[in-house]
């Protein structure tokens, strides 16, 4: 690998770590596409595509709860793809390297969030004078420079000097060690599928995953027929579990909210509303930090509205900026309803001040902050569950089989589809929040619209992921018992295959699931799987 290639790949990693213009970075710097782009830079896009599809199962239901990053899947994609292409290691070895890279490089995100505390204190000084331009520079210039030091430099060193050396070591391993890596490659995807079950697999829905698994085992069919059958099964489930008092279709409740009439007076221009929505996407995750997380992003989101509402009152603008520099964290697309609602409240407050409403009847700063703080958690929970634990794994599962076959279009279509869905959803929620104010939040949280949609996609997702688990989780007993002078008896064929094909793979998934459900961490379960692979794979008891 040349120094230029290492720098280009490190820049790709730096971009992925930025979370700029959500959900653009989240979608287009995702694991499969970033592996494909790594392949393009290294001259073998097909191999990059295959690597991305192969290691994708490990990170299916990965969500950064509260902004915390348990593993770094982008680092896993870049480092693993680079090693497979330039050092010639196997895909099974790549899965193990992927896990190590993801765990180690994730620590850089903790360093980043600590370093970004400087940006929020620098922003406080800008807010004191209402200097929105300096706020913007802090987000778009100073923040990326800090990330460059933390992400770009270490990744360049790893790629330039670490990949080839480790590759030489991996290529010289004996057969028993290669079997360890093969077993690890078969076991580690169980973690990703177990995380999906843990997040969206409520007790009564888990059988849909098992059904998908055995559908694939007995039929030999993959994600496409599995998805079609899963949609049909989910539709039947919603029909037969529908309550007599529920007269709405799957999306009827949300459409009713969209068509509801606003009771409030609105004075903000469409241009300003577009700027508010644009700023939300541009800044909200760009300089998150351990102290106040997305506070600066929320402050910059509200800046255009405050400027139009108080064009000749700098003091009110500064007060508004200060109240939005408080602690803030939520999911960004379903959570897009929050800046919509807060914009509406700020607008009503400005109208009241123009009408000289008495202070005791004025929408207070405390009320605005209370509404904002009260909505962060509920909408983060809904958004993380629907988008990142259900829709994202479902879409990735559907396309990763094509990526594993080297079809270059798969990662691209995967990310475009997810991007269109998330942006449309976010804009819908923002507009509804602004139009209906706090009523929109209460209607969504109290009716069953979201729950019906989550359940539908959870069933489809679990069934499809069951089919893909059958293809990606591979573990079998390879130890054979001597019989007679020369013959050998396969324990796998004698004991396990008659029970059900792939039963050990399914047990591996639910073993990891049970461990995670009891409070086990991703790090611990990864280490346990690697220990099993080293011990039983090295002894020749288990394999793939």
Automatic annotation (TrEMBL):
Cellular localisation: Cell membrane
A single GO BP: phosphoenolpyruvate-dependent sugar phosphotransferase system
Membrane topology listed for this record: Multi-pass membrane protein
Coiled coil feature spans: none
PROSITE patterns cross-referenced by the UniProt entry: PTS_EIIC_TYPE_4, PTS_EIID
Predominant place of localization: membrane
Tagged with keyword Transmembrane: yes
Claim: Transmembrane helix is one of the keywords in the record: yes
Example of a GO cellular component annotation carried by this entry: plasma membrane
TM annotation in the entry: 20-42, 49-69, 75-106, 140-161, 181-201, 208-237, 453-473, 494-516, 522-542
Record's keyword terms, sorted: Cell membrane, Membrane, Phosphotransferase system, Sugar transport, Transmembrane, Transmembrane helix, Transport
InterPro entries tied to this protein: GatZ_KbaZ_carbometab (IPR050303), PTS_IIC_man (IPR004700), PTS_IID_man (IPR004704)
Protein name per Swiss-Prot or TrEMBL: PTS mannose transporter subunit IIA
Lineage of the organism: Bacteria, Bacillati, Bacillota, Clostridia, Eubacteriales
């Amino acid at each position: 690998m040349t120094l230029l290639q290492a720098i280009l790949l490190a820049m790709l990693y730096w971009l992925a770590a930025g979370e700029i213009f959500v959900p653009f970075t989240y979608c287009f710097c995702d694991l499969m596409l970033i592996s494909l782009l790594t392949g393009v830079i290294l001259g073998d896009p097909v191999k990059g595509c295959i690597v991305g599809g192969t290691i994708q199962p490990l990170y299916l239901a990965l969500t950064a709860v509260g902004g915390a990053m348990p593993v770094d899947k982008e680092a896993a994609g870049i480092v693993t793809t680079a090693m497979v292409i330039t050092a010639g290691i196997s895909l099974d070895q790549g899965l193990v390297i992927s896990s190590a890279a993801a765990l180690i490089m994730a620590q850089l995100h903790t360093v980043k969030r600590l370093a970004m505390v400087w940006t929020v204190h620098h922003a406080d000084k800008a807010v004191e004078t209402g200097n929105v331009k300096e706020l913007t520079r802090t987000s778009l210039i100073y923040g990326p420079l800090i990330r460059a030091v933390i992400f770009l430099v270490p990744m360049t060193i790893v790629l330039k000097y670490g990949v080839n050396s480790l590759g030489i070591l991996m290529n010289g391993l004996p057969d028993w060690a290669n079997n360890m890596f093969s077993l690890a490659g078969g076991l580690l995807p169980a973690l990703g599928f177990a995380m999906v079950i843990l997040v969206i697999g409520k007790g009564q829905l888990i059988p849909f995953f098992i059904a998908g698994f055995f559908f694939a085992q007995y039929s030999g069919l993959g994600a496409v027929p599995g998805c079609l059958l899963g949609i049909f099964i989910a539709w039947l489930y919603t029909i037969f579990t529908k309550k007599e008092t529920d007269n709405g279709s799957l999306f009827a409740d949300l459409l009713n909210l969209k068509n509801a009439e606003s009771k409030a007076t609105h004075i903000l221009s469409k241009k300003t509303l577009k700027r508010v929505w644009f700023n939300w996407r541009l800044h909200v995750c760009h300089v998150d930090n351990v102290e106040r997380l997305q506070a600066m992003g929320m402050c910059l989101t509200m800046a255009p509205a405050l400027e139009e509402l108080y064009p000749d009152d700098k003091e009110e603008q500064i007060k508004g900026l200060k109240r939005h520099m408080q602690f803030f964290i939520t999911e960004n697309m379903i959570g897009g309803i929050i800046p919509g609602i807060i914009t509406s409240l700020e607008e009503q407050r400005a109208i009241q001040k123009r009408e000289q409403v008495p202070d005791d009847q004025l929408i207070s700063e405390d009320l605005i902050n209370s509404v904002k703080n009260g909505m962060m958690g509920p909408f983060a929970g809904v958004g993380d569950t629907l988008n990142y634990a259900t829709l994202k794994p479902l879409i990735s599962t559907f396309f990763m089989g094509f990526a594993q076959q080297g079809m270059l279009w798969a990662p691209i279509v995967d990310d475009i589809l997810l991007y269109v869905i998330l942006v449309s959803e976010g804009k819908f929620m923002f507009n509804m929040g602004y139009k209906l104010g706090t009523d929109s939040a209460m209607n969504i949280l109290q009716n069953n619209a979201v729950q019906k949609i989550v359940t539908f996609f959870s069933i489809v997702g679990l069934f499809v992921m069951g089919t893909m688990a059958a293809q990606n989780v591979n573990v079998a007993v390879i130890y054979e018992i001597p019989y007679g002078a020369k013959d050998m008896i396969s324990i796998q064929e004698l004991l396990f295959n008659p029970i059900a094909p792939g039963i050990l793979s399914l047990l591996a998934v639910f073993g990891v699931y049970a461990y995670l459900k009891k409070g086990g961490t991703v790090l611990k379960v990864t280490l346990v799987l690697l220990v099993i692979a080293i011990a039983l794979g090295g002894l020749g008891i288990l394999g793939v």
